[in-house]
Amino acid sequence: MLARTLAALVDGCRRRAPVIALAALVATAVLGWWAASHLSIDTDTERIISPDLPWRQREAAFDALFPQTIDVLAIVVDAESSGRAEDAAAALAARLADEKQLFKTVRRPEGGDFFVRNGLLFLPLDELQKLVDQVIAAQPIIGTIAADPTLRGIFDALGLALEGVARGETSLDSLEPVFSALAASIEAAAAGSVQPVPWEELFTGREPRPMELRRFVLVQPVLDYSKLQPGEAATTAVRKAAHELGLTPENGVEVRLTGSVALSDEEFATVAEGAGSATILSITLVIFILFLGLRSWRIIAAVVATLVVGLVATAAFATVAVGSLNLISVAFAVLFVGIAVDFGIQFSVRFRDERFHKGDLASALEGAAAGIGGPLLLAGAAAAVGFFSFVPTNYAGVSELGIIAGTSMGIALFLNLTLLPALLSLVKPPGEADTVGLRFLAPLDKFLLRRRRGITFIAFCLGALGIALAPQLRFDFDPLNLKDPRTESVSTLLDLMQDPSTTPYTLNALAPTPEAAVALGARLEELPEVSQVLTIGSFVPKQQDEKLAIIADAAALLGPTLSPPRTAPPPSDEETLASLGKFAAALNAVAGTDEGAAAQLAAAVDRAASEGAAILPILRESVVAGLRKRLEQLALSLTASEPVTLASLPEELKRDWITQDGRARVEIFPSGDPRDPATLKRFVEAVKAVAPEATGTPITIQESGRTVTEAFLQAGAIAIAAIATLLFLVLRRARDVGLVLAPLALAALLTVATCVAFDLPINYANIIALPLLLGIGVSFDVYFVMAWRRGHNFPLQSPTARAVLFSALTTVAAFGSLAASSHPGTSEMGKLLTIALGWTLLSTLLVLPALLGPAQR
User: Fold this and answer.
1) pTM (predicted TM-score)
2) Which of 246, 349, 610, 831 lies at a 20 to 30 A Cα distance from 306?
3) Distance between terminal CA atoms of the chain?
4) Measuring CA to CA, which residue among 248, 264, 265, 267 is closest to residue 256?
5) How far is Cα 346 from Cα 465, in angstroms, rounded to an integer?
C-alpha cells in the first residue's frame, strides 16, 4: 500500500514536472529572500545554555551587581619603563573616553591620582625606607633637573655630578645606572628612534617588577550582535587611537587586546579565515564523489538543486522557529547537508538501477519510489526523532538545533520524493548500460557470509574494548583550548596567565559587609588551593603610621627640591648645544680609560654633538619626554599625610568591590595551573566548601561541561528509546530493531575508543558530530535491513551499498576538510566527524551483513 502510494506520488510529480520545478524556483527565491533579511546569528555565547540553571542564575545575579565586569575589552599596555606604561595607558584611556558612541565605560583599575599619592604606602616597610634613602641621595641632581626640566638642565645636573666625582665626593659607579640609561636613549635618538629614559627608576633606584611595566585599560564597547564580530568597531577604534598616539613597539610601547570581546571576535575571524578556499575544495570533492556514485551530471544537477532548495526552506523555517541562530544551532546546515544528500543519493541510485532493468524513465521513477520510498521514510523519521530528542535539554544551543534539524528531515524527505523526481524527468538522464551495484565486492560478500560468526565475534570484542575505554574518554570544556593560540587575544591572555595575579580563572563570592569580606578572605587564604584573595580591604595598606612617618620626613627634605619657586625658561638650541658640549668635555675628562657606562655615554654624547641642532627634537622626545610628569608624580607621592581607610577609597574603586546595598566582593585566585582540569576542579570544590554561592570562570567551565554532557546523555537516551520504539512499530520484530541499532552502537563505541587512543577529547565544537552520527548511522542501517527483509542477498553488491558508500564519502568530503582548519575547534570537529563517519561506514558495510546472514523471504 505504501509503495503504491509513493509510486503514484512520484508519477504525479513527473507528470507536472515543469509546474513543480517553477514552484520550487519561486518558493526558493521568496524563502531565500525572507531568510536572508530576517534570519540573524546571535554570537553571544552566554545564551547557548539555559539561563534557568542555578549556577547561571548566580552568575547573572553577580553580573547585575557588577555590570562593569561583563563584555570587557581588556587593553594591555606594556612599556620599557613604568612611567612610560603609565603615560601610554593614561593617554589611551583619555582618547577612548571621548568615543561615547563606541564605549559605554572606560576605566583604569590601577590608575589615577589615588594610587600615585598613596602608592608608597603599599610598599613593604623596608622597601619604602630604601627607596626614600635613594631619592634623598639623588636630591642634588633631582633639584637641578626640577628647576630646569630640559636637556640643558639634565646635562647641567650631570655635570655637577661629575664635579663631585672629580672632588672624590662620589664615584662613577654610583652614576652608572643614569649613564647607561641616558646612553641608550641618546644612541637610539641618533639612530632615528625613540627610547625614553626611565626617570622613575633612576630617581628611586628601584628595579620595577614585571607587573609595574604593564598597565590595563578596561573598556566596555557597544556590541552589535547582528555581526559576526560584535566588537569590531571598538577594536578598530582602539588600534587607530594607539597608532595615532604613537603607542607602537618602535616607540617602546606595545598595546594588545584581549578579554571576552576580543577573544570572541578573533575566534569568529579565525573560523572565517580560509573558509572560502576550504569551501571550494569541499564542493569540488563532493561533486567529484557524486559523479563517481551517480555517473551523470544531469542527475548530480538534480540532486544538488534539491539539496539547495531544502537548505533554503530549512533556513526559512529556522527564521520562524527561532528567529536568531546561536553558535550551535547554526550547525543545522551541516546536519541537513550530511543527511539530505544521502536521501538524494539513495533515490538516484535506485532510479539508475530501475532504469537499467526497465529502461523507461517513468517506470524507473515509479520503481525507485516503490523500492526506496519506504526505507527513506523510516530513515528520515528515525533521524527526526533522534534530533527532536535534544529539544527538552538545558543546552539551549542544541535544543534549538534539534528543532531545526528534526524538521529539516521532513523537508528533505518531501523534496526528495517530489522535487527530485520532477527534476529528473526534466533533465532526462540517459539510460544505464550496466548494473548499478558494486559487483567487484562479490568476493567480500561471500567472505562475510561464510565467516559471519568470526566477524560477529570480532565486532563483539571491539565493542567490549570500546566499553572498557569509555571511562577514559576525556571531556575538555575549557573554551580557551578551542581558540587559536596564535591570535593576539589568546596569546595575550596566555601571557597574563603566567602571572597568578592576572589570571582570569578566578572565583568571586559576596559577603554581607566589607568587614565580613575581609574575614571570609582570611578563611579562604588558608586553603592550599588558593594563592591569594583580594577584597576591598586589600586596598587599605598595612603599617601606615610607620610609613607615613617615613614619607613625612622625606617630604620635609625633598618638598622644596621638587617644587622650586620658579623654573628656568626653555633654552634655545644654541644654549642646549652649549650645555651638551660642556657636559661632553667634562665626561671625557673624567671617563678617561673607563670602558663602562661612562665611556658608552661619552661616545653617544660626542655623536649627538656632532649632528648639531638637527638631533635635538628627537633627543628631547627620547630624554625629556615624561620627565616633568615623573617629577610631578614623585612630588605627589610625598604628599600622603593621612592613613587610607575604606571611606577614603575612590568611589570608582569602591564600585568594583562594594554593591549599592553594602555587600562586598571577594575575589579568589587559584594556586597551581588553573588550566589543568584536576587543579581547577580541586580549586572550585575547596572554595565552594567555604563559599557555596561563589561564581566565576572556573565554575562556568565545570558547570557548562556538566550541563552539555548531561544534555547529550539525556538526549541520547531519549533518542535511542524513541528510535527503537519507532523501528519496532514499523519492523514489528525486536531482532530487526537490534540489527539496525547494533552497528550504530558499535560505531559509537569505536569512535570513543579512537578518541581515547589518540587523546582527542570531546568539547563544545566536536560534540556536534554525535547527532550527525546518530542520523546517518540509523539511515544506513535501515536501508540494509529493509532490503534484507525483502529477501535481497549479497548486500555489498546491491545498489543500496553503492548509495551508502558514496553518501558516506560525500559527507566525509564535505565536512572532513574541516580537520585541516587552523582553528582548533573547527579542526577537532572535522576530525571527530571523519572518525565517526568512517566507523559508521565500516560497521554498516562489514559488520551488518555478517549479522544479517542469508536473507529469508
Assistant:
1) 0.78
2) 831
3) 19
4) 248
5) 33
